[in-house]
Amino acid sequence: MSMSAYLSQLVQVAVALMLAPLLVGWVNQCRAWLQNKRAPSLFLPYRTIRKLFVKDAVVAQNASPIFRLTPYIVFGAMTCAAAIVPSLATDLPFARAADAIALVGLFALARVFMSLAAMDIGTAFGSLGARRDMFVGFLAEPALLMVLFTASLISSSTSLPQIVDTLAHHEIGIYPSLAFAGVAFTMVSLAENARIPVDNPATHLELTMIHEAMLLEYSARHLALLEWAAALKLFNYSCIGLALFFPFGIVVSGADWLAVMSSAPLLVAKLAIGGVALALIETLSAKMRIFRAPEFLGTAFMLAVLAMLVNLLLGA
Amino acid sequence: MIEILAVLGFPLSGAAVLAALGHHRIAPKVNVAASLATFLAAAALTARVVSEGPLLVLDRQFFVDPFNVFLVALTAFIGFTTSLFSQPYMRIEEEHKRLSSARLRLYHSMFQLFSFTMLLALLTNNMGILWVAMEAATLTTVLLVSLYRSPASLEAAWKYFILCGVGIAQALFGTILLYFAAEKLLGAGGGALLWTELDGVKGQLGPTVLSLAFVFLLVGYGTKVGLVPLHNWLPDAHAEGPTPVSAVLSGLLLNVALYAVVRCKVLVEGALQTAFANNLMMGFGLLSVVVASLLLSRQKDIKRLFAYSSIEHMGIITFAFGMGGMVANFAGLLHMTVHSLTKSAIFFTVGHATQKTGTQVMDDIRGLITISPLVGWGLAIGSLAILGMPPFGVFASEFLVLTTAMREAPWATPFLLGALGLAFAAVFSKVQPMVFGETTARRLPMRPSMLPVFAHLGLVLMLGLWIPPFLADWYRQAARLIG
Amino acid sequence: MESLPLYAQLINLLASVLLLLAFAMLAQRRVVTLIDLFAAQGLALACSTAIVAYATAQPHLYFSTAITLVLKVAILPWLLHRLVQRLDVKWDVEGLINVPTTMIVGLVLVIFSFNLAVPISQLANTVTRATLGIAMATVMLSFLMMITRRKAIPQVIGFLSMENGLFFAATSATYGMPMVVELGIALDVLVGMLILGVFFFQIREQFDSLDLKHMEKLKEGEAE
């Protein structure tokens, strides 16, 4: 493995860690603009994280070690994922540790620990949030797997850099299977990242929370890590989407790390557009009842399977 | 050629005329006149074919050979006698206020239009037009089944429409597959759907596609034949529609649908050289016979009883054609003829009986022989005829089918015998009290027009004792064609 | 992977849209939207036929396109809309099985149709032979829609959508049937719709509703 590969790997992880809170801030900005409100500063998430790190952690008396460990595990999982997903380059030594299916497993790992920690203290809202999150998660995972399978079928491999390599070299054309898979993926990422129409990230009504309910007991550095991890999750999902469906600009194998630096602005631009799109979707939709979530995710699953079948049949 | 145009033109123009003045007093007579004209044209066509052999006319769009010419004659004849029967019947219905004159207009024009679609389906050489005509036949009769506008008749018509519609869609897919296979050999364009052309190249048609096509065609057209398990619409449509409609459905539509199936079977057999099509037809036929005879004893409505009897007999005919070979085909063709004649005669009688007693429930009909001797005897003799008593024609054809089955498919013979026996017991046990039971009702003054009934039964009796040579010749030629 | 010519890509896209619309109709509960989806299906069908006509230089397919456009995008949806307005139908209650289960059954049917179509596709020599599987899948999905719906109008739309699928199968396997047959089929469909229109009024008059559960009384159990 060449030095430049390692360097580009490191740069990618660093960029992910640094840009993730900015992405969250940007989405909040756009949402405020669309709703004709005055937005908080773009760097507010950074300030929040820094503030939280300085505070004293308050932990419940009956908290088990899982409660204390979960923030680190979740953050670690998200960072691993950031290392695997080819956002800047495809020549990633770390990517051999896990392929697309293991990536889904990483996300599942994070979700499991979050739910365990939420139920750890024994409060009502924690369990409520944990149950709902698991409900959404178990429906979303098959859909995500199907999307990744479609991409894998097209590129005959489940290794993410390989997939991106093949898709980047695809001829420009109309590919219905990728279109369907794209729509399915958008729906799944909306569900997984706790965005409207599945969950409202800005709500403070505990009865309507899914993701937020699981964070209720955390404070200080634990909360900081979890908030950062959530931002990283959004970043990762966006990068997966960009890698699968808009792979132009990602440095394919054989380039040196200077090229990696030049692909970073392109990534920022793509993420900016993605943030606007996300804000648009959030503004135009209404949060649906939790019992409608199966239909929403069932549609996503069906679209993903359709994408795979259409690809098998038509070769497109 | 002029005969073909006449055979098709008379019903079509009759429909147009009756659409305009179907509500007049004169409408039934116009109906009879149009049917008579059609019958005479069909007789002329038959004479032409007898003397000159098969006809292929009008840019190969119409084809008349021994197989369909006798069906054409049968269809025209039964259409004529039904129109004779419906004349007084519908007038009485109108007097009983069950129908308005506007609905009679619909009835008369649709009756003629239905005749037209049947004859078109029989005479056309183009498999696509065959499909169109079959679908059109369904459409013309849907509104007829719901003529009484009662909840039950609406439900029957809806089931009929949907089930036959779905079935006919399957048949369309089968036709598309047939065209797909034929196009390679005959080129695109109308020529690839002509049966005569397909018959010429049937050895070279792709087997995979044709077997798939036959499955769809059998399921599709088989729905209209009333093969189990696609038969659900049949009892309801027969029971709820007016009696003349039941008569033509049983006597004509089922036959024409089976004709379509057999035409397809000839092609598939030629392409596959295996017994695939035969086995399918035998299977469906046998299933229909057995299931129908089992369900016969549970019926309470007289028309439903005879509708299930139709399903059973169509099963026998399908089984016969499935077995194949000269004798079985001959038997199938004979059975088609006698069944149509007998069943329509029975429905005529049943129509009179229900009109006189005012109910279709068998438990409430008793002592027809006292109420109206002609009707009572008609029903008794008709039932015996349809159950296969000698010397009627049905016995002859069933005998031939059974003996062939004992030779070719011995495993099926116990089922057939059992089913026939069961049917005999069920129908006879229900008809006997209806005809000879005790009743306190007086003898009714109205004289029913039983001429069509006895004409049909007379023909069936004759066919049981002696088949005219030209008819036997036709049957043999047709049997040879079917293979 | 070699790239297909533009027209083949467009046809693939339209076929996928057709399949998607069939699924959308399965899940849709509002009748008015259902009719619009059916019209959209007809439009996709017409576009696909037009592209095939252009790409393979077969002028008789332009006639087919015209027939499809006039019948399935204009007349039939208009008839249905008028029916819905006069019958005052709005919503459909939940079908026989719930939406996610219907979707999964639909997916199984799609897989089955694709499998069934592969050997036939290989025998065809049209440019659109790969889309035969999608045509069959559309037919199966429409059939599923007919089975799982309780009101009369969605059942009828399922029936018409089945006919759409069959037409697409004809075009994709054989460049369409002979003109006279297509005209006959179109005529049958139109007349069928007119008859159904009359029929709906009769049903409505009799039962005061178009819910088909009123029409389940003539079961075998009744006569037995």
What's the short version?
The complex is a heterotrimer of chains A (316), B (483) and C (224). With 316 residues, chain A is mostly helical.
Shape of chain B: globular
- Helix % of chain B is over 70%
Regions with little confidence, pLDDT below 50 for 5+ residues of chain C: 220-224
Elements of chain B, N to C (H/E): HHEEHHHHHHHHHHHHHHHHH
Largest interface: B-C, 54 and 49 residues
Q: List how many beta strands of chain B DSSP finds.
A: 2
- Quick one: how many beta strands of chain C? 0
Largest sheet of chain B: 2 strands, antiparallel
Beta-strand proportion of chain B: under 5%
Strand order of the largest sheet of chain B: 1-2
Oligomer class: heterotrimer
Written overview of the protein:
The complex is a heterotrimer of chains A (316), B (483) and C (224). With 316 residues, chain A is mostly helical. Chain A is 70% helix and 0% strand. The two termini of chain B are 27 Å apart. Chain C has helices at residues 6-27, 31-56, 60-87, 99-123, 132-148, 152-174, 179-207, 220-223. Chain C has eight helices and no strands. Chain C is 78% helix and 0% strand. With 224 residues, chain C is mostly helical. Chain C is globular and about 55 Å long. Chains B and C meet through helix 5, helix 6, helix 8 and helix 9 of B and helix 4, helix 5, helix 6 and helix 7 of C.
